[in-house]
From TrEMBL, chains A, B:
One of its GO terms (biological process) is carbohydrate metabolic process. The active site is at E486 (proton donor). Pfam families: Glyco_hydro_65C, Glyco_hydro_65m, Glyco_hydro_65N. Residues 688-749 form the Glycoside hydrolase family 65 C-terminal domain. GO terms for molecular function: carbohydrate binding; glycosyltransferase activity; hydrolase activity, hydrolyzing O-glycosyl compounds. This is Maltose phosphorylase. Belongs to the glycosyl hydrolase 65 family. InterPro entries: 6-hairpin_glycosidase_sf, 6hp_glycosidase-like_sf, Gal_mutarotase_sf_dom, GH65_N, Glyco_hydro_65_C, Glyco_hydro_65_M, Glyco_hydro_65_N, Malt_Pase/Glycosyl_Hdrlase.
Amino acid sequence: MKRTFEVAPWHVTTTQWDPENKRLQESMTSLGNENLGMRGFYEEGYSGDTLEGLYLGGVWYPDKTRVGWWKNGYPKYFGKVINAVNFIKLPIKVNGEQLDLAKQTPSDFKLDLDMQAAKLTRSFTAEVGGTQVEFNFERFISAATKELVGQRLTVKNLGDQAAEVEVSSLIDADVRNEDANYDEQFWNVLNTATEDNHALMTAITKENNFGTERFTVGFESSVKTSMDQVDTVKTEQQVGLVYRQNLSAGAELTFEKRSVFVSSRDFADEEAIVDRLHGLTSELDQANFDDLLAAHTDEWADRWTKSDVKIAGDDEAQQGIRFNLFQLFSTYYGNDSRLNIGPKGFTGEKYGGATYWDTEAFAIPVYLGVADPAVTRNLLMYRYNQLDGAFVNAQEQGLKGALYPMVTFNGIECHNEWEITFEEIHRNGDIAFAIYNYTRYTGDKSYVLHEGSKVLTEISRFWADRVHYSQRAGKYMLAGVTGPDEYQNNVDNNWYTNLLAQWTLKYTLEVLTEVDPEVAQDLQVSDEEKAHWQEIVDQMYLPEDHELGIFVENDGFLNKDLKPVSELADSDLPLNQNWSWDKILRSPYIKQGDVLQGIWDFIDDFTPEQKAKNFDFYEPLTVHESSLSASIHSILAADLHKEDQAVEMYERTSRLDLDNYNNDTVDGLHITSMTGSWLAIVQGFAGMRIRNDQLHYAPFLPKKWDSYQFRQQFRGRVIEVTVDANGTKLELISGEPLTVDLDGQTVDLK
Amino acid sequence: MKRTFEVAPWHVTTTQWDPENKRLQESMTSLGNENLGMRGFYEEGYSGDTLEGLYLGGVWYPDKTRVGWWKNGYPKYFGKVINAVNFIKLPIKVNGEQLDLAKQTPSDFKLDLDMQAAKLTRSFTAEVGGTQVEFNFERFISAATKELVGQRLTVKNLGDQAAEVEVSSLIDADVRNEDANYDEQFWNVLNTATEDNHALMTAITKENNFGTERFTVGFESSVKTSMDQVDTVKTEQQVGLVYRQNLSAGAELTFEKRSVFVSSRDFADEEAIVDRLHGLTSELDQANFDDLLAAHTDEWADRWTKSDVKIAGDDEAQQGIRFNLFQLFSTYYGNDSRLNIGPKGFTGEKYGGATYWDTEAFAIPVYLGVADPAVTRNLLMYRYNQLDGAFVNAQEQGLKGALYPMVTFNGIECHNEWEITFEEIHRNGDIAFAIYNYTRYTGDKSYVLHEGSKVLTEISRFWADRVHYSQRAGKYMLAGVTGPDEYQNNVDNNWYTNLLAQWTLKYTLEVLTEVDPEVAQDLQVSDEEKAHWQEIVDQMYLPEDHELGIFVENDGFLNKDLKPVSELADSDLPLNQNWSWDKILRSPYIKQGDVLQGIWDFIDDFTPEQKAKNFDFYEPLTVHESSLSASIHSILAADLHKEDQAVEMYERTSRLDLDNYNNDTVDGLHITSMTGSWLAIVQGFAGMRIRNDQLHYAPFLPKKWDSYQFRQQFRGRVIEVTVDANGTKLELISGEPLTVDLDGQTVDLK
């Protein structure tokens, strides 16, 4: 396999100039701080193939959607993340010639993402304007000041004569989305201004037909440099400052650009935005660049202290897990409960920054372990705050209660495939399960007994209305659903969905016995309603095949031609690139764990035999064409002591993007799938479970590893788990003493 | 119910000025001649609400389709009929004021479609330019000369002073589709010219991204009038001639416009098109208007002689059946085997002029009876000629053989809902069945033993590849299909589809035993292939419920909440306007006959008890929200001697558009559904069947009718069937003697 970057424990780095893989490099060197993020594109511009993507948290556009013939209940628009105004632009000229690596092939090229410091640097030498020049770019998106992006450029004249160097610091609204339907632009510039070393632009997202929020954004950049300001740029879509310096032979110059971004998400109007921009800039003007950078890296150091995973004997794995955590934290660190975790975060357009069920099913179990409970709590609050949207989604289908969206920015469903939007409703159960998961892990009942009980009640009301009673079967059923396995659409009685519906009703009934009277008063759940929920719980249909000893993914599944994936030709795989959708739907092949997803959720509720029979039946039919698939299978394989298979599955998830396994990392990183490697190590290899308020471990050491060590937060403590050839070492890094279970033995941590 | 038009045996006529129902009137007064057609919009222009639709047979545009996330096998474009250059335009001014009935309310208004003469006239008096003027418009689209549209206008000055009348004869390319995505235009004008009383325009459909044929069209109009030509119009998108006359008090003027249309469908290039236009016009210039009109009405008289249905005692029914046949013949009369029958013909944009399975399932059984066999044979040739497209459609799904499209202009699938395009594959069986139907009815084996055997073989190859063998069930199955009942999507083992697949294989094997050696040589069906087909025939799974004694529409159908439609609230109906698609899909309600469609196809193969049990089970669950539904139910009800129900179902189809039952006739007429009333009368009330080469009748007389009489073609004869209180009278109008069966008695017709 051809690697784009070298294998290094803390770095994503290369010294190869590799324009063929430019987009891939851009994806992998993305930076973000939850408030905004960007791909690792070149600030000076690049006339070759590139995807200049810069995205703002929570800023999106409702695009017209046409799904054949629109029918009642179809989403009215398709929400898309939009490429933001490019405020980091730094075009460079030497002796009048534009620096453009598509034209001047660089030497001594080095591209380096330092994951520990969360900093991107790029250095090279190029012959521009008839002279050899050395360039060094630094970039960071501050984890300490959410509005700040810092850039530093040094230019050194390696020639034997003076060279005239020109650098323009621009804010450019002339940007587009590659997925724009008619090459339209999404920004209307409101105002631009320049003063001294400052340039400012305000813009608003273009009008839409759906009455959703239009976002006003403001950017201000300030420059610190030895260069002379010689001109300003002010066009309809650009504003900026031009600097020039006659750089004598062997001399070096430095150019700093600090940009801040503020939007109507936080400020009432353009005026307030501009005030805030000025306030921030004048503050930042006082600080020097290294101090701003230090405050940022300190914040990251703290994150790593709580979450770092060390792997000895496998540098690829070491780099993989750190890259995953780095990109996950860059996308979301729980600072803003209005934001969430987009499947591609700030690294591309597809899936964009929209919210999916990935958050509850895959990200929350990780954040619970690697970050403070407040981070997860904010993700739960996000759903609580979007209840109104969930009511609308249910009403659109003519149903009671709350239907959380499959894809959303504001709580309203905004994807445009009916088989997904109103059929893949298991998400409603996953969101309920996340409340249980948070409560079980943190022991904090403050959410579930207040906001959570409301969310659970309204989800339960949805389930109670969505099921129907089959006279013939004498059971409650869920018709017309799509499970996590999206390679089976519009099926009846998806076992996973039915199980989650039943579980949600059961759990809600439990929670209702604990809530305060005034909360109960507010929820208005009558005894009849409770009785009806209980009846559904008791008579829910859960397809099962006793002969095979398995749960059946959905009605009719066993009628398919059940040939294992191993019997397919290599040329068939991946199916989604080689087969028609028709053929995929009719096939028995599973995109990602479905029955097995349910077994993972409730792993302690099944016997080893049940787990084994289902795993052995379904895994051979699974093509793992969702990046979310491998981790769950790794955990279950580990649970079943299939250690080699657990490790193989881990490897698929650990370096998915670094090694571009699915050959689609050019579009952006699989952010939510990056949770997979941590889950595989902690829940898989280390067998971490929570059972009746207690931490349990049952670790094994992968053959090719010398050791692995991870830190985990649990109820106010930080616990360090080290597994090596000598066994498992548990250490309490901080917090009160605690008793845990290791391989069935009670261990007291002090 | 409010009627838009009066009830009259041969006319669709009204004297009410009714702008609220303008679009409805336009739909109902559409004219066509297979080569082109138009809605009854006003040639002088109308600034109020109107849908000016003029469409050209076989001229379409492949529109970009976005169906959420495009997957392999999805159609690449959405084919749409495009609104043609408006060449019938006749703006009128009196004393400088524009005639516009949205502004000058007319008196003595009369709008009349004469179905016998196939002519549209409109007359009224209006005060324009300060004087009372009487206008009379005549319009016809020639059935004798396919390129010709004739218009005649008379203007009479009712005032007491002279008035200056101005008439412009325009060809206008500034037209749009209402369903255009971005208000785009579809025509690029190539050339315009005027000479003497002639105006000419050539235009080409705009470029598309799919490499499909671009259509070059040419229009030439010539004017005959006493008025003076005072000016010409030549803009980017318009060309024409302006005439003026000072019309003294009480005087009248006449203005004739003859327009011809020629396209690249018939001529190599623009030059050839223009030559042909000139040739036609100079020819037509010799003839006088009344002769051109006479040639047209003679052709229609001949059509009526062969097909007229007379109903005594029910004027609504009489008008209904004639309106249906009139509009059906206006859409298609078998002159061009490259054309077919669009569900809305030339009367609107939606469904447009595209080809659906409606043709084989509903139109062919009618054309067989009312027109020469050549008409139906051309419809069969249409599919034969599009075999290459059908191969592509199958290959797109990774399947062998031929998959005929659900929607097409050129043989390639061009609709954009996956649950329809590659799942509603029963159409492939309906197309095979039509070959059998033609052969059985006409006795002409020349098609089935040559082109037909090729079509059947390739369809069979598709079925043999599309089925899968279920080890578990020990049966062949069809997973992931949609039946005629589109309210159940992506189901397994739709009984109707499985039955047609099995039948096609069986019939093809029969046909292969009869074809000539050289035909067999060309088809290359090996003994192994035949054996495999036979195996599928023998082991095809056909879901059946022995307890209920019914065939099951699809797997899982009986698990639904089987509450009859009668228990729904009125406010629920029609479901497609009041329920979400989600709720409809999960419901047991049936859009149109599905199992019953199959029972109709093979009506002699089932016992009365089987027919009764299935009818009594499914009809109460059927909402008949497809305009194709009622007729089949009428026939089956008649077959089961449920005469009142048969009549009730007939009434739903007979005046569907005239009475705007589905409240959507504003969009255009339900052309293919117009076959329903003829089917209900002939196959339903008269019980017409073909059994072993013999005609059978078992008529009854609807209670409220005094009598009905229809003419039917059968193997070179025209037979007249008259049913009244005294019984049934059969008469041989032309052709060789024939023996038929009447209520089980043999009758010799001489």
